[in-house]
Every structure is written in structure tokens, then in C-alpha cells.
Queue: 3 jobs
Job 1
Amino acid sequence: MRLSSTLGTLGAIGAVAALALTGCAAGDTDSSAPAASGAALTIAKPDGTISTESHNPFLGDSSASKYGYAKVVFEPLALVNPTGDLGTTPWLAESVEWNDDYTALTVVPRAGVKWSDGTDFTGDDIVFTFDMYLNGTLTDTSGLNYEGATVDGDAITLTFADSKYVAQSRVLHTPIVPKHIWENIADPNTDPLTDEGVAVGTGPYVLDNWSTESVTLTANPDYWGGDLAVPALNYVSYGDNAALTTALVSGEADWAQAFIPQIEDSYLSADEDNHFLASPTAGAGTLFLNLQTEPFDDPALRKALAYTIDRQAYVDIAREGASTPIWSVTGLSGLLESEILPEYAGEEYSVDVDTARGILEDAGYSWDDERLIDPDGDAVSFSISVPAGWSDWNTEQALIAEELDAALGIEVNVDQPDWGGWDAARQEGTFQAIIHWLEDTGNAYGLYTSTMDPKWIVDDRAQFNFGRFDDPAVTEALNTYANASSDEDRQAALEVMQTAFVENVPAIPLGSHPLLGEYNTRNYVGWPEEGNLYASADPTQPGIVQILTELQPAG
């Protein structure tokens, strides 16, 4: 999250961490106004039958999490935009303010908010929610390392054992729950919240009906954010993407997050009111290379590949336009342009076969009957692995194989194992090349920790840094960036990390890893769109509450 763009439309602030993020968000409208009586919105998932009822927002396998309706019932302190300006909008907090080293967060609870059972929301609910991590009643699966809270008038300061600069959204997106109900829950880690009157939140919608076929929520008439145009939400899970696409085209479903092949022909052309938004994030679809084995133990080969692989083809063909290419030698996408060092500004890779061949020749490579031969006299070949059925990245595998064969004479084997085999290989380091996503922290740290940080290797199994890059100076810089108490220290660390990435090419980002959203404007307008990315259009993200306060009747 870039401090220079924090708050977005609520007012610009400087890059000084101590400045408060303040704003009224959606709370200036008349909260006593009744909900409109327009059409319900049906939100679709392609995950098959969700058979077990659970409304617990802290459980990843609860129906509330799988469908995504937890996010319209239980609200966070603030919303961190993963796209657009990467800014922060205060939500249940009227303001949020980090200290210099991001080990303490001061929040002022929003006044005039009620839980859906009519009880007043107060700062006690915020402290109680976080204290569940402290007293062990709730497992700290997000790694917040929360240490306690202090209260000074209306202000509450939450403290953490380490810096949250690269994990601000994990703190700010914590769902706040009502103390008067949850203090009576024996085990918040397992309770499904299915008892009468227990699924209580501050959000814009309240649970109305749950079944294995669908879940219905109705507008909260006392919502602090004011009148809601959409009177009800229906959550439905279809068997697969094909069934979901059919539902979107027929109008049976209104809103979804899915990768739809041939989306122009299969969805957009069916109705002028159908829309698709791919919102770029700071993450990226990335080609990870095993730096510990041939042929990728040679940085010259890695750099030659970076000058050969066509990122625009990845966007246009593999992703069907649902991405943006990443050409910068720093590996950073356009959203993070402000973190590109001056010496690398404008320095980009391109599809430049002459340059790629020149790099290889200088490193002792040659060609025999158009096959690339390494300095030891062996033909260069490798395999690239992506699970079967990941259609976009399966297509990219084929593209890379064609590009490298034609341009450099490298034979690339396309490997499409099942998920289990692929997952084992990426963790154990028994692959040669894979396509994978990055840890998205909203800043440059996400790319560089994902590709160069040894912290991800535990018991010789990798969660990121699959190539097992290891340079003590870079490791120190990564730790400094994450924990620095000044912008100057963070900038100095960035210089070390970025220079190492440019010089070593430990991985090759292909294109932004976007958040996807399909929706129609038949009944409502005000959706995020190009030029107004106040949130992504993905209904599974926390920003859904902001979208629902922005929607207005069409016409």
C-alpha cells in the first residue's frame, strides 16, 4: 500500500507514515432511510455444492468464506484497495494512523454504528476482536503477532510485535465482531454461528435464508452507510465455470469472479449491459526458474529468456486481455512505478532476439543445427510445469515453448501434472520452471520477497522463492524494508533488492495478476470501471461493501 496515494477520493495525504487517514466513507448519507425495493443481485461462484452451513468469518472453509457473504455481514476497520491508487479508505474506523515503524495502529471507532441486532458498536468491540488473538481463543492464522491495546479517549492503539508495513491489509481487513455475542462463544475457531441471533454484524446486509442451493441476505435497514439501492443479495454456487458463464449470459446470475475463456464471444457480446473488469494488482503471473539446477543456474541464460518471452502475447493470448504486460527490468508493474529506481526508469525488456543471442554468445553458448548448445557442449532444454486445467497458464506454456524454440533453439517440454504433483515439486524444488503468482503486499516487497527471500524455505520446503535464491545482503535488505522506521531506510533497502533482481533475473514476471469481475448494468450503475478503480469488481474481496454503497438504480 503506497502512502502517497492513501485515501484516494477522501483526500490526498503526504508520504509521512504518521499522518492520519481520515474520511467519512459512505457514512454521510441518512442511515434512517429505508432500503430500496429494486431487483436483487445474484452473486455466482463456480465451486460446486457448498453443503455445510457456517457463518464464521474467521474460518476459510466456512460457507460464509466460500460464498463470500461474510464480507457483507462483518466489516473491517478500513478497506485497502488492491488496485487503482492502492489507497486506504477508513470504514468501521473514522481514522487509522500507523506509527513510524508500523508496529502500532491508532484507530478512532466510527460513531453512530449499530450491530444488526440494534446494539451500539463501540471501541470495546474492536479491542475484544483483537484480544481474541492475544488470549488464544482465536488462532492467529494471519500472523498478526498482536500484543495488546491501549485506549485514550476515543482513540484505540493496537500494538504488534513486528512491523506491519508489508501487511497493513491483513490488520485493517480483520473482521470486527460484537463482543456481547462472541464473549459467549466457547470456541471461535470452530463455532459455525448457526444459532438464532448469533450471525450479527455491522455490514450492509443481514442473513435471511441459507440452503445448500443458495444463500439470501437482505439489506440492513439500520446500516450506518445509509440507504442501499440493492434490497437483497442471492449467493449461488454453480458446478463449474461453464455453468457459471451460462448463468451470467442468461441473466440468472448478475455478478461473479471467474476467468472465462473467449469472454468476448461467450459473455460480453450476448448483451451490451454485460461487463468485464480485470483490475491489475501489484502481484504478477511469474515464470519461476529453479536456480539450483541446469540450465537456470546460469544468469546469462535467464537474462536471454527475459529478452525473448513475449509478455504482450501472454496478455493477449493466454490471458485474453485480462492482464497488463510487465516489461520493466525491475519486474515491477505499472502500479508500482513510483518504486522503480531512477537508474532503471524506462529500462525495459522487449522481444529482442539479437540481444538475447548476443548475451548467450558472450557467455559461451553456441548453436548446432539451430539447437542451443551450452558451454559444456550439451543441448539446452527444460520443462515448464503448470497444473492441467489451468487454461490460461497452460496456453502460456505452449507460447513460451514456441517462442524459445523459434528464437533460441531451446526445446521446452510442456508438463501438466495434477495439482498434487505440481505442488510437491514446487515446494521440494524438483521442478525446472513453473508459472506461479506472487505474494501481493501492495508494494515492491511482494515481488522481491517472493523471488529472493530465504524465509520462505522451511524444512527444505518452499512457499515462495521457489528458485531458492540466497544472498545475505539481499536478505538483510528485505528485512530492513519490511521493518524500517523511516522512508530513507526503506529506500536504501529497495536499492539493494532491486539491483539484485535486475542483475540476477531470479524470475521473470509476465503480466499483472488481476482481480476479475463480471457484472451487468441492467438494474444498477456505479460499478468500478476503467478510470474509476475505487475497488476491484471481484465480489469476493473486502471492497464489495464499498461497491454496494456506490450502486444506484440504472435509468
Note: The chain has a mean pLDDT of 92.
Job 2
Amino acid sequence: MDYNDNIRNKLALLPDLPGCYLMKNEEGTIIYVGKAKVLKNRVRSYFTGSHNGKTQRLVANIVDFEYIVTSSNMEALILECNLIKKHMPRYNVLLKDDKTFPYLKITNEAHPRLEVTRRVIKDKAKYFGPYPNAYAAHQTKKLLDRMYPLRKCGVMPKEVCLYYHMGQCLAPCEKEVPKSAYEEITQNIAAFLGGGHEAVKKDLQQKMQEAAEELYFERAKELRDQIIHIDALMEKQKINTADTKDRDVFGYAVDKGWMCVQILYMRQGKMIQRHSSAFPFYGEAYSDFMSYVTQYYSDNPALPQEILLPDKLEESTDKPAQATASGDSGMTGAGAFTALVAEAASADEAAAETGQVTAQDMAEDAEEREAAAAEAAAAGTVDAAGGAAALQEWLNVKVLVPQRGLKKQMVGMACQNSRVALDEKFRLIERDEERTSGAALSLGQSLGLESLSRIEAFDNSNIQGTNPVSAMVVFIDGKPARKEYRKYKVRTVQGPDDYETMREVIRRRYERVLKEDLPQPDLIVVDGGKGQISSAIDILQNELGLYIPVCGLVKDDKHKTAQLLIGDSAEPVPLARDSQEFYLLQRIQDEVHRFAITFHREQRGKSMVTSKLDSIPGIGDKRRKLLLKHFGSLKKIKEASIEDFRPLSIGEKLAGQILEALKDEEPSV
């Protein structure tokens, strides 16, 4: 029975129950994990009807599947998250860096500390965050360290340190600090991070005024500096709401097989940051979006009070609604968001009090939700209301899918920003194509070539003929193909002869190309002028019978790409210095030079170590390798003591000779 019959038989036995399904390839590897309210409908949908290109790629690799039945949609949501983390399927949305946002932490110790951490554990410490911007977290800690004198050291020192003398530590190492003092500091830090910085600032201003009146000008200056730091830090957090709720506002957009998710973070009524993630997806868009949200909160225990999710509507995925605020349309920045969130907090309550939300409105909303749920159930996919309910039950946090009003506009704003981010990504790709394949095409036209896809470039490197090496880099359609780079140790050339080095390397490279039937380049680029070009052409045409165009890149007195020469006659090719073709040549020359220099340094370093150790009587090839393996480098050998050589069965006399020989030796490069 082939795998098609196996799948067909399994599809006939699928239950009408919620659960998770695991798709496998021919090696038995799990390549996709999904969840469904109705397993029968959802799993069957992969093998019937038409799909977009990326989903077709997934389905083409499925030869078997398993499923796990759960008792509820919430259990399916959690199980899917756990299975994705365990198996890391190739075609699933996988969070990588997004779950490691930093937090500020006040440790639960006898003498607490303030620190930045990315791990939240149940240790009775106080956590504040997350901070999507790690720099902001460290800057906040730096400010709080100046203001509140908690201990800074990891291990208690035997005497007071500089922080005590600077007034930034209570010195528990020197004197007893009452628990009440720490409790007061902890409360002040919590109040500050909870949005109470204005009260702290006002208190500091009063203390500064008092210090100035009592002529304690140094203390007044310290307090003034703290006020300035607070203003600088909080300047970026001026987007306020009428309430002080913590909210995460999600939006997403999809295009060309990519999804972008935007999260707008509001903490204590202030929008502190937005976070954007763009990634390819292969499954059903809303299911993969909910998978992203679930993974995000599975490792993010500092939950907000409210989560706003977009509905599974056409306009919120492919064409997000144009959010408007105060009559202004098309705004995606802080101004529009401020106008939205400043009213959103009280809008629902005001509507209820004034009777703006009518029974008819509520009935229409219910009908819309029922219709959406019925459509989702028929397809076996996750519907927005069901996903939000499961998430709310799991997290025990209010999760809303706004249907109208200002909160829906806030979600629309997040979706619109997702669309803008995706458009920007694709525009950048187009620009990159213009700089790469477009530049390669134009360069080929300038050189009179029918096509210019593959370019191979060579560069030689040596210091007065020592350790001569050469390197080749490959550019395909204007982009580096690093897997095809090659390094060459020069074998036959003695001394600094660049022309003969070029002849040897060209011969070795293209003899192998002919022997192994490797792809031939459309253009060969050598670092140098007429001599290097002629050497390469002579080997190619007269020895190997290859007629591949060869050009040379000449540098100016500042070692910058100056001119392109082509052919045995080394005719200059006129290229504008600010053209994309010229920039492409610069990138090629810089890359091959970097690659050759790096290889030469490696060889020179090995040579220096080898020659120096070989010059010591009693050190042969075997002992030299043993020394380098044990110590790691010439520098470490030099810094070792006589006793350090005993594990290598090297006696005191020979160890002394080694250290004496290396005494005046500089560390190798």
C-alpha cells in the first residue's frame, strides 16, 4: 500500500473532534503541526481543493500524519504550542528571539539587587516588563541605580566599595540595613516603573530646591542631573491613555507568502514600544497568527491586563482597514495612535451610559460572529472568537476581538503598520535586486556580453613572497555565493611574482572546472592590470582552450577601485563612479581582497608558530602538535610555568628551554 492509500484511509477515519495534527515527510520527520476545532474538516482540507504556492510546497512533502484528540479548543491551543517547541517543524511559525525580551528584576534576597534579566522564574522576585528594546531596559536600570541605593555586587565584599561613597549603595557589607529601608526602596522603584515617575520627579525637584537653599550645591547638582535623566528617559513615552491599563494590541498582514505581526505595547497607559516580526508562513493565515501569539505568551509570564486581537476578516489580513482618528485618515504614527488610545479607555463606558450601543448593534455583532464561526467550522480552521476565548481561558487575561469602535481602530492601526512593514520589506528586496541582478545585467551590457550571471574573481596575497596564497570568490546574479569560495596555497612560485601566481591559480581552477564539468563563469575578474589579465588569458586560451572574458580592476593610490580594464589589450571600460555597475565591482573587489587577506593571516600565523617551536632542540612535529593542542596558542605556552608542562611528559630542563626561546617572542597574529 503506497502512502496515498495510507493517507486516504486515515482521512476516512478522522473524528469530528478538536485536537492537533502532525504532518510527516518520507523520513518520518514532523514538518508541520496544526490545531483544529474539527480535525476531520481541517486535515482533509490539505488534500482537497487548490492552495497557494507555499502551502502546495508543504502538502507535496506530506506522506503521513498523526493526530491527537483534545477535549477543548484551549487544550488544542496549548498542545500545539508544546509540540512546536518540541519538534521545531520546518513549516511552522517559530519564535526565536521574540520570546527573550528583557525584564527589570528586584531580587528576593536579604539585601536585594536590581538587575536586567531575560529569564523569568518563580523565585518571589518582582519583575517589571517586558522591554522590547533591550537598550531601554539597561538605560532604565542605570537611572534607577543612581536614584535608589540597592547593592550592586553579586557577592558581598569585605569592605565598602565606590558605590557607597557615591551614595548608590547602603553598604550592607559594612553595617546593618533594616528591612524597612529595602521595602521603601522597592516600593519607590515599583511606583516609578508603574508610571509614577512624575511624582518621583516632583519629589526630587523639592529636594533640589531645599539643598540649594541650604547651600548644598553639590547635592543640588546631583538631584538636578537625576531629573534630567528622568526627562531624557521618559521623553519617548509620551503617548498616553485616559486609563492606566496594560494592553498588548496585535495586528497582522500577509502578502506573497509572508506574514508580518505587529505588537503595540501599552504599559500603565503609555505606549512604550512596538515590535514587528516578519516571517514566511505555510499554513492557514489566521491559524499561524494564533500560533505566533500562543508561543509568544507561553514564554512571557508578565501578562498585560488586556489583549486586543484582529478579527479573521479579509480586510484585516490582506488589506487592513485604514484606521482613522479624529477625522484624519491614513495616519500610522504616534499622532493617530494617541488620538485613538486617548479615547478608547472611556469609549465603551460612555457608549453604554448614553445608549449609543443599541440592542440592534449587539444583535448584528452576534450574527457576524456566528457567521464567521460557522464558516471557520466548515473549513475546520480556527475562528477569531474561538481562538480569543481559548487564549483568555488559558492566560486568565481579558482577550478581545473588537468588532467596532475605537478599540477596533487601534487593532486596525496595528494591522496597517503590519502592511506598511511588509511593503517596506518587499521594496527593500526590489532595491536589492536592482543593486545586484540589475547591476550585473547592466555591467554585462557595458562589456558587450549576452549574459552576465556568474562572476569569478581572484586576488593574491603575500608579504615579500612569504606564505603566498590566492583566493577566489563567486558572485551569482550580483550576490555572493559563499559556498563556492575557494582558497589556494601557491605551490610553484618562489618570491613575490604576482603574474606567475595568477597563472598557477587560474590553471588549477579551470583544469578542475573542465575535469569535473563544473559551471563556467560568464566573466573572470582579476585584481590588477594588463599583466594579470594577460597571464590569465594565456592560461585559459593557450593551455585549456577556454575563451572566457577576463577583466582587471585597477586601484588608485588610496587602494580604492579606480578603473575596469578588459581583454588582452587592457582597454578601459567607461563606467560612472556612482553607477550600480561600479558599486558591484567595488563589492566584488573588496570581498575577494578580504577573503584572500584573511586566509593569508591564518597561514602566516600557523607558519610563525611552527617555525618558532621547530627551532627549539627537542621539539619535533609530534611534540609541537601536542603543545599547541594542550595550551591552545603560542601566547599561552609563553605564559605557562614549568609545572604546566609536566602533564605532557616534558621535564624541567626542556620546559625551561621552551620558555627561554619564547621569552622575547611576540604573540602570533
Note: The chain is about 50% helix and 15% strand.
Job 3
Amino acid sequence: MKKLNLIFASLILLLSTPIRAQEIVPQTYCNPLDIDYTYMVYNSARNISYRSGADPAVIEFRGEYYMFVTRSFGYWYSTDLVNWDFIKPEQWYFEGCNAPTAFNYKDSVVYFAGDPAGYGSILYTDDPKSGKWTPTPSISNNIQDSELFIDDDGKTYLYWGSSNVHPIRVKMLNKDDRFLETGVKKDLINLVEEEHGWERFGENNFHPTLKEGYMEGASMTKHNGKYYLQYAAPGTQFNVYGDGVYVSDSPLGPFTYMKNNPMSFKPGGFTNGAGHGITVKQTNGQYWHFATMALASNSHWERRLCMFPTYFDDEGLMYSNTHYGDYPRYAPNHPTKAGEHCGWMLLSYKGKTTVSSSKMQIKKSTSTDDEFEITEMPLEKSDDGEILSKVLTDESPKSFWVAEANNDQQWVEIEMLKPGQIYALQLNFHDHESGIYTRTEGLRHRFTIEVSEDGKSWKTVVDRSESYEDAPNAYIVLTQPVEGKYVRYNNVKVPGNNFALSEIRVFGKGFGKKPAKVKGLIVDRKEDRRDAFLSWKPVKGAQGYNIRWGIAPDKLYQSWLLYDTTEHFMRCLDRDTKYYFSIESFNENGISEKTEVIEVE
């Protein structure tokens, strides 16, 4: 009887104890996009081997999505805009497509162009998933950076241009007769650097000798009867590479400069740039802007892709949400917050990093004169004899570490400054003398990841030791978050001769308080009205600050994320526009309240 009473009491206790439900982790994505980027042929004669993805053309076709990328020798397919599978076509341009264009015509045929030689052989298919395409004869030339647009009435337009002198142009084609030119041809828009600061050439819109930016990457979006002609400036290798818009009532113009330009802009943070893209409408009506980010470590033309939600406001102004643009963001399937920052912060910033070996560690950045500033860092060890690395948690994709070998004896361990709840990781691998110069099948990234609270007892949270995934910017979300202060990457084998990384980023939620509201924001607009100097008081415990600005207090569409500074000089304003500014601080625990908006004449 006593035993029965004990069992009964235990059962009552069990039933009365609330069951802790497992947290449902939402689907997210993180820029740069996690796809199997192709190795480039640009600098193969100089033995410079690197992956790149640029100039995306993304279309929706019969409820699914296709993404075409410069010189990738094929294209990618997705059902959800997050997970992409590569399709190798049966026949394709010999050197791969260059600055491609694609158009879905009434869910019946996909048209495509992008010959790197500049000749206009347009391909078409009604089954892009099969990889089977039919070419038209070559009927046009000089169509670098082209955009094919077919209006609702079937009239067909080809926009093109890539120059620091010549404008974006348009010519009409006959879709029903091999896309022959009809004779209608017009100059449309050009850069006006003396009015638009963000169009000025160079890193941070400054170059000591070259003043003219490059206008390229035309793209057309029709929305509510208006034609939004998008264009990229000032150069793909720079942090300020962005997309602007001119608007018209006709695909032939005249076009008017959109007053809140640029519509896609990401000059700060880990990975910079958001230019030369395309805007695609999801099946639920949400727009997304796919664009090019500047990695520019092995080469200025080393690039990655990004995706941002895009909107049209009450004035019909087009804009993208790039705030915290390289932090995890809700996936397109989220019912109310698709593309918004999901609240996971950076836990790994400036964490103490030890490595198994070190062939070299390079600190690298793009200077204002279009060259690289390169520092080879001396070998540094801790008091315990551990090899240290300071480039793997510095929030710079250009800096990198190279191990002595590419085997299962190589590892990286990060001791974060503070413990946190870990939700996701991003591994940014670096190509160091990889010796690969084209699309190569069978590449794999194999590794495991462990987490520890004390640096002694470890738990494996990721096991890709036998993976067949090729993931140069692997973004990995844990099925359930785990508490930890230490993260250890254990290499098995990755592409290339040496295991090399540019950054390990750990995302989640810290256990402390988010920083206080910023005080003392001052915006000093200079005599050259395209320039402004900003300063503010430091906030205790802040990792960094996010400046927001725009053309109205409720239209702060632009942002610039900065680490470890309380001042900033920007050269990206439009000369004749009144602006409004606000700022917030952030750390591993969250984002502060925004400051009151400041009006700046």
C-alpha cells in the first residue's frame, strides 16, 4: 500500500508539473546568401582562384523561382527563395552568362540573355527545370548588362548600359520575329554625381582621381501602372554599391529621379553593397530585391548575393529593408515579418579565437583609391602557447586566416566575450590558392561544430562530417537553441589546398541587458551638401550603432551599421534633399530604442 501511495503521489506531481514546450525555431536566411557559388575564370591566367556570384536575375515561373548569376555556367532553382539547387543546362554560353537577364512571359515561356561577348542570342524554354533551351540567331550587339522586359501588351524592350560615360539606353525588339530590332532606340538616364552623392565613385564615395561612377545593371519593375527603371552605381567593388530608381508612366520614358534614392543600399556592417540586382514578386505579392555584395578579397570582382524585402509606400516610392542586412532575417514564408531582422544578435564579435595551426593571417580592406590595404599579421600565441587569430571575429569578410593543411587535424575555437543562447552560425570560408577556375562538381564542406558552457564539456550541435553540401557561406540554424560561451569548429575537408576562413559568426540572444538609448547625436551637413559628419556619445556596453536616415520622419529607409566608433563621415546624400536622422545602439542582447528624429536642412 505504501508503494502504491508513493506511485500515486509521483503521478500527481508529474501531472501537476507544467511541461516545457520546445521552442519552435522559425525559418530564416542570412546574407550573403548560402548557395554553391561558382569559381570564376576572370583571373585564371594569373592563377587567382576564387568563387563569385553577381548581377542576379531572379524570376518566378509557375509558382517556382529561378536565379541566373554572372558566369555560373548554369542557374539555380527554388520553391521558397531560401533553398536553391543548381541546374546544369544542356547547352549554354561558352563562358557562362554575363550580367544576365531573364523574363517570365505570361507563365508560358522564359526568355534569357547574357552572352559575355555582348551579342544578343536570346534563349528560351517552357521548362527551365529541365535545362533544355532553344537559341535564337544572334540579332543584336552591345547588350552588356541588359534587361529584357516584355510589357502586358507584348511589346518588348531591351535596356542596357555599363559605363562611366554613356547612359542607360533602351531599344525595342519584336518578340514574334526573332527579337529583331524595330528601330526605336533611346538614351534614357545617366549619373548626376554633382547632385547625387551616392553615385560618386570609390569606397565610401571617394576616390582621389576618378570622379565618375559607373552606371550599369538596368532592371525594370512595373507596379500599379508605373515603370520603375533601376540602375546600379558607382562600382561593384565598393561598400556603397547600390541601386537607384527612375520612374515613368511609359517604358520608354521620360523618367524622373526618385527622391528617396538609392532604393537598395547597404554600406556598413559585415558584408557591404546591394547593387546591380533585380526585383521579383513572390507568389503572395511580396516583392524581393536580389543584389550584389562586394566581398573583394582575392579580387575586386569577388562578390556574393543578397536578398531584401522591397516595398512601395503611400507615395509610390520604392525601397528595400536593409537594416541589419547581414544578420539572420525571417524567411519569405513568415506570414507577417518576411525579410525583417529576426532579433538574433551577433554573439561572437571580438571573441578570443584560437586555431590549430596558422600558415598566414591577413588583414585586408579596400582603400579609397580602389586598391587594397594589406597587413600580414605576425604569429601570436597566448600565455598557454595557443595560436591566436584576431581576423575570424572582426566582422570583415576581406580579412582571413589560412591553416597549414586541409584535414581533420585543423580546428578553430572561439571563446565569446559573454555566454548566450545560440540559434545559428554562419561560416564564411576563404579561397586561398584553391587552384579551381570554373564550375566544378563534387566539392564538399565537411566539418562538425561543438558548443560548450565551460570550455571543457562539449556538445556536438552540427555534424556535416559526411555532408555532400558545397556551402562556401554556410548558414546553419540549430533545431533547438543551446546555451554556450565556447564554439569549436572541427574541420574534416573543404575545397582547396588549405582550410581557410574569413569569419565565423555566431548568432543568438545574450543573457544581459540591451544597451541604452544613444544621446547627443549631432549631424553637421557640410558646405558640399552631399557630405555630412555625424557624432554621438558612447553607450556603455554597446557593440556598435545603426544610423538611420531618409526623406521624412516616417521614411527612414536608409541605414549604416558601424562597430566601435562614435562618429561617421558619409558622402552619399543628395545635394538638394532635406534629410531626417535617427540612431540606435546594439549589442549581443538586443537593440536600443531609437533617438528622436533630427531634421537636417
Note: Residues 2-16 form the longest helix (15 residues).
